[in-house]
Amino acid sequence: ETGVTQTPRHLVMGMTNKKSLKCEQHLGHNAMYWYKQSAKKPLELMFVYNFKEQTENNSVPSRFSPECPNSSHLFLHLHTLQPEDSALYLCASSQSGGRDEQYFGPGTRLTVT
Amino acid sequence: QKEVEQNSGPLSVPEGAIASLNCTYSDRGSQSFFWYRQYSGKSPELIMSIYSNGDKEDGRFTAQLNKASQYVSLLIRDSQPSDSATYLCAGAFNTDKLIFGTGTRLQVFP
Fold it and tell me: I need a surface site. Which of A59, B8, B37, B39 has the fewest CB within 10 A?
């Protein structure tokens, strides 16, 4: 595996379900990010982790819960989502903080029914 | 509020022409800028980074940064239909994150 991987690639869940998105980076980076991209909207930064510590929570609703057990793995736990949460969820990583180039994973296309 | 602004387009250019994509930003404390290409339904792909004033060339792509005028641009020479995508400009402004523009959609027609 190379670069940034994300699983699953597609997810359909009901509003009462609990699911998790997984991201893994194989680049030796120390910072990881979650973004949300809705149709015809710009990228929205959700969370930033730097050396496993959360350094940014961009006023994200509590139904989204991130977890970063180490610098290579990032999770986004989902529960009681709303239909408007349907979007492409992108994970990215960079060497360190925000001044560095970020590399994106392929994304998870989430549909909330 | 640090902002990065782009014209949403679409920018339509004929095959073989030069496509010029522009981005302006509001904070003079910018450190570096990045151009990403995003095909429909796919994730952004980094294509150029630029850290200092002037031009940086990589194949058919040239990034230009002018910190005094607060703009950054991307030129694509010999545009191909496969270049049709949305191009995102992003800047780093002394924070722990990149600020992304809304993207410019480029259409290259044969």
Answer: A59
Cα dihedral: B80, A42, B11, A105 (round 10): 0
CB contact under 8 A, A101 and B100: no
- pLDDT tens track of chain B, all 110 residues? 668 999 988 999 999 999 999 999 987 777 799 999 999 999 999 999 999 999 999 999 999 999 889 999 999 999 999 999 999 999 987 777 888 999 999 999 99
Residue of B32, B56, B97 best to disrupt the A interface, most CBs of A under 10 A = B97
Contact (Cβ atoms closer than 8 angstroms) between residue A48 and residue A54: yes
DSSP per-residue string spanning B37-104: EE-TTS--EEEEEE-SSEEEEETTEEEEEETTTTEEEEEESS--GGG-EEEEEEEE-SSSSEEE---E
Q: Give me the residue from A45, A50, A98 closest to B92, CB to CB.
A: A98
How many Cβ atoms from other residues are within 10 Å of residue B31's Cβ?
15
